[in-house]
Design brief:
- The chain contains ten helices and six strands.
- The chain is α/β, with parallel strands linked by helices.
- It folds into two domains: 7-18 and 96-246, Rossmann fold; 21-92.
- It is elongated.
- The longest helix is centred in the last third of the chain and has 24 residues, at 223-246.
Length: 247
């Protein structure tokens, strides 16, 4: 029999974390976060990062190209101490976790509900963050991806999640998606409910772009309100799916 209970899908930047991790990662790499480097090596790395930032500012490269270069620099600079650098960066970023997300995340990490972290952030540090939170399943932007493979966002994120669900026989289960950005519209359209953490203006835009999806504004909820909301949403989605099976 098909399962009717939903899967919780979490974005990272602006959702689980209240800020975007990407600029923090750039600062960490370019300005002394990798402690194993000599002064000369750090100077060269800083100069390289500054050059990439200038190219991005001038429009010579796009965000994805910048991310690819940063991933390559990370692997070059952390050769031999990748785990240590990733752990320190994760410790820094986890301080930015939204307080009201704790109860929702605990539902997954305690095994009460199935969930996955699906993020455009680089796997070089996103995997460490996800594991520290307690996620078993993490989809992030691979550093070794093919030139034709984009970052884990938009339609590509949706396709990867669909493939992940198919591998587990969970294709027909409803999704509750925690998100804050229009870049993930393809996945929002596949969801039963979107728990929204972005701006009110973007929320109205998302509602127009995905009129069949139920949006719930969650950024201003307290942790207790968030826990009650998730329990209610989980129950309502499950009941609705069971009724559809019965029909």
């Amino acid at each position: 029999m098909q399962r009717a209970d939903p899967i919780l899908v979490f974005d990272l930047d602006g959702t689980v974390l209240r800020l975007n991790s990407f600029p923090i990662w750039i600062l960490f790499v370019g300005f002394g976060g990798i402690r194993s480097l000599s002064l000369k090596q750090q100077f060269r790395l800083t100069w390289r990062v500054l050059g990439l930032l200038a190219s991005r500012k001038l429009g010579r490269i796009n965000h994805e190209t910048l991310q690819r270069h940063m991933q390559a620099l990370w692997h070059f600079a952390t050769a031999g101490d990748t785990d240590t650098s990733a752990q320190r960066l994760a410790t820094l970023l986890l301080r930015l976790t939204r307080r009201n997300m704790a109860s929702a995340l605990k539902l997954v990490t305690d095994g009460a509900m199935d969930g996955i972290l699906a993020t455009a952030a680089a796997e070089e540090y996103a995997n460490e963050i996800g594991q520290r939170i307690g996620f078993t399943h993490i989809l992030a932007t691979s550093g070794g991806r093919r030139p034709s493979e984009p970052a884990n966002t938009g339609e590509h994120k949706r396709e990867r999640l669909v493939a992940w669900l198919e591998q587990r026989g969970w294709t027909d289960r409803p999704l509750i998606f925690f998100n804050d950005h229009m870049a993930d519209l393809p996945l929002m359209r596949d969801s039963s409910i979107v728990c929204w953490f972005g701006s009110q203006r973007s929320l109205e835009q998302a509602k127009r772009a995905a009129p069949h999806v139920r949006f719930v504004a969650c950024r201003g909820l307290s942790e207790t309100e968030m826990c009650i909301t998730i329990a209610h949403l989980f129950q309502s989605v499950t009941v609705a799916r069971l009724r559809s099976y019965a029909a």
